[in-house]
Amino acid sequence: MRVTQSMIASHSLRNISQSYGRISASLEQMSSGKKISKPSDDPVIAQRGMYYRANLNEITQYNRNLSEAFLWMDNSEAAMEQANSNLQRIRELVVQASSDTNTVEDRLAIAKEIDQLKADLVEVANTKVSERYMFNGTNVTEPPVAIDDAGNVTVTAADTAYLVEVSRGSQLKVNANLNALLGQGLFDTISEISAELTGNDTDLDALLADLDGHMSAFSAERSDLGARYNRLELLESRIQYQEDLSAKALSDNEDIDLEKIITDYSNQKAVHEAALTVGSNLIQRSLVDFLR
Amino acid sequence: MTSTFHGLETAKRGLVAQQTALSVVGHNIANANTLGYSRQRVNQTAGAAYPSPGLNRAQMAGQLGTGVQAESIQRIRDHFLDAQYRNESSKLGYYGTAHNVMTEIEGVMNELDDTGLANSIDTFWQSLQDLAANSVNAGAKAIVRERGIALAGTFNYLSESLQMVRSNLESELQVTVKEINGLLEGIDNLNKQIDLVEPNGALPNDLYDARDNLIDELSGKLSIKVEYVSNGGNASAQAAGTAVIHFLNGTESTTTLVDKAGYSVISVTQAGDDSAVDTVIIGDSAIAASDFVSKGKLLAMMEGYGYMDADGNVKGEVTDMMQELDQMAFIFATEFNKVHKAGLSVNEISYGNTDTLFFSEEDGGSEPADAKGFAGRIQVADAIIDSIDNLATATTSSPIKGDGANVLNLANVIYAEFNYKDAGGNDSPTVEKSSLIGYLQKVIGEMGGKTQTADRLSSNSETLLQSVLDKRSSVSGVSLDEEMTNLVQFQQAYNASARMVTLLDECLDRIINGLGLGGR
């Protein structure tokens, strides 16, 4: 084949620009840290990357939703702990008041304390977390329990579930049912106890049995919340595991292998320099240089 | 008997012929880097022998040569390689342009970073999830509104950017048509100049090169077939003649672009709302855009910009992508609005159900009416902009202000599967359904695949074109080494002929001045 100067020139130019192109691609990968910079570099990586990124965003969001769930459950638990000690105290006082050794004044004092504890229970039932009533189902803008000046308590709590989505399509109820915890019945019983004591009536056995009934309902609801809290903790560790997996998949898919890129880059650089040197020697030589 | 000065004449012919050859070498060296230049050679032939046969020929020992003559100056060119080059050039023109178009679209729809549509959808969903967990929080509501505006804004931005790409393509398409007409006119002009020269027996080599350059350039824009028709007269055997250029639509040639009579002007007509390319008119014949398959830049521009297919629908890479966006925006907005209208906002609970929209047409108040161009018009409805309390957070089953059940329903619209392929949203077992994100992933994946294919095909045809170009350059290119060798060769031949003149001069000197004294 006949070879001309312009062929050699255009060949070396093409080869040099190709090797320059490869170097530029390596540099781009190194500086961005990503294998691809546009979908057409590798449509499969691009499409998978979109999927993994959406997936990671989703899991991150569910992880954030979990903190909302924890907020509710932790606050509910704290409120219930307080309610529980109040109820225990009421029971103690009722038992104490049942004794015939008490004077009328003693009973009146006990009744007063029970009234105070009742008012405190109302406060507990109206606990708010970040401006929302926790024990009124989804009706978070309205207080579930009202108490008038005479001490009459009205419970209007909704028993709807306050749901937080914890994974696609799966929701966890994060609130406790006030009607089971501190329902109208309980407040009525406490009011009756107080009334009996004020009336100096010592026959409190029936009311004590009622109170015990309400307290066991309270415990049942509380352990129900405890069980859901356990589930929440399980979910949290699972979601964090998923988040790790997802982040790893995303990284495996599109992040560069730095060692490999650097090795490739060094090779390409050596080839490029050789091409430049050879090209500069080759192009300027022709017979013209050797004729006198 | 030959003439006394026969030898001098022979030597003179030698001098003239070598000088011609030296001039041609000089011309070649000067044009070593001229684009499309073919090296030229002097065809030297021995002069007619003396005496020529005949009854009254001179009686001699035999025929005596009369030296050399420069018979013609011919360019070295292989027409087979030209045909190959033009074939590959059409393919490169087509795939290269198609790749450029796809790269433009890809530049707009680059979903790999955190600024794309996918990210807007994700953050919108996240804001809804945050609101669902805390549905009375005014801050969370305001964020949903802002993210909604950002999502609509992303749709608008992408739609506008694609529209921009499309209008750039339109002007480039028109420029391409103009370029083609310019080339055709240039080829026609050169044909006419060549027609003036050839019948005289000369070879207009540099005009041939200029014409071949134009034909090469034309082949990148349209598929063509070239035929040569003799110009008659006293044309040399090596004369190329008039180039007749046939337009190739696929493999059949239906129309002549350039012939002896002149050239056909090419133009395109546009029709419809999208002013898509409707017909390509070449001279007197019109070709429907859907039947136009002539590989080259023009076809790729048409396919990028948009043309009318056989059913009268607009097809084209940019218009297809715009349509996908419109479909996504329209169907998502419609479905989102359905859920939003079904829910109850704080205001609706207080003042009665008004079925508020979340996304609306450009006017801010009306329902999405037409999918066409909707991505450019989608907006968050004025009612939501005016008050975040118009956000339908509650469901009708528990119409209380604190209820956030509908927010989850709204968030689920993003992951719910719909038929995004069809603006009618028709549901049948034969259509595929996908979520908004899933559909976007599919669209981006397809776009990436198309761009990659166009890239591969264009670099393939570039390689092939390069190899044909190498072959052509191997035949027609100027080699400086070769020219220098020729230079030495012709110079020596010239010197030798000059020496011959000196020798004959000495011979004649001997006869005229040194032989006897007669006539003195």
From TrEMBL, chain A:
Q: Residue ranges of the Flagellin C-terminal domain?
A: 211-291
The residue ranges of the Flagellin N-terminal domain are 6-139
Coiled coil ranges (UniProt) are 73-100
Concerning Pfam families, the annotation shows: Flagellin_C, Flagellin_N
- Give a yes or no for keyword Chloroplast in this entry: no
Q: Which Gene3D superfamilies match?
A: f41 fragment of flagellin, N-terminal domain
Q: Main site of residence?
A: other
Q: What is the lineage of its organism?
A: Bacteria, Bacillati, Bacillota, Bacilli, Bacillales
Q: From what superkingdom does this record's organism come?
A: Bacteria
**Keywords from the UniProt entry:** Bacterial flagellum, Cell projection, Cilium, Coiled coil, Flagellum
Extract the NCBIfam families matched here.
flagell_flgL (TIGR02550)
UniProt record, GO biological process: bacterial-type flagellum-dependent cell motility
Please indicate if the UniProt record lists Chaperone as a keyword: no
Gene Ontology CC terms? bacterial-type flagellum hook
Per the similarity annotation, which family is this? Belongs to the bacterial flagellin family.
Single GO term (MF): structural molecule activity
Q: What is this protein called?
A: Flagellar hook-associated protein FlgL
What does the UniProt entry say about where the protein is found? Bacterial flagellum
UniProtKB/TrEMBL annotation, chain B:
Where found in the cell? Bacterial flagellum; Secreted
Can you give the residue ranges of the Flagellar basal body rod protein N-terminal domain?
Answer: 8-37
Alphabetical UniProt keywords: Bacterial flagellum, Cell projection, Cilium, Flagellum, Secreted
Q: What is its main location?
A: other
* Residue ranges of every copy of the Flagellar hook-associated protein FlgK helical domain listed in the record: 102-348
The reply on keyword Lipid biosynthesis is: no
Instruction: Give the molecular function GO annotations.
Output: structural molecule activity
Task: Please provide one cellular component term from the Gene Ontology annotations of this protein.
Answer: extracellular region
Q: Where is the Flagellar basal-body/hook protein C-terminal domain?
A: 475-513
* Gene Ontology biological-process annotations: bacterial-type flagellum assembly
Name the family.
Belongs to the flagella basal body rod proteins family.
Q: How is this protein named in the record? A: Flagellar hook-associated protein 1
- This protein's species is Pradoshia eiseniae
Name the gene behind this protein. flgK
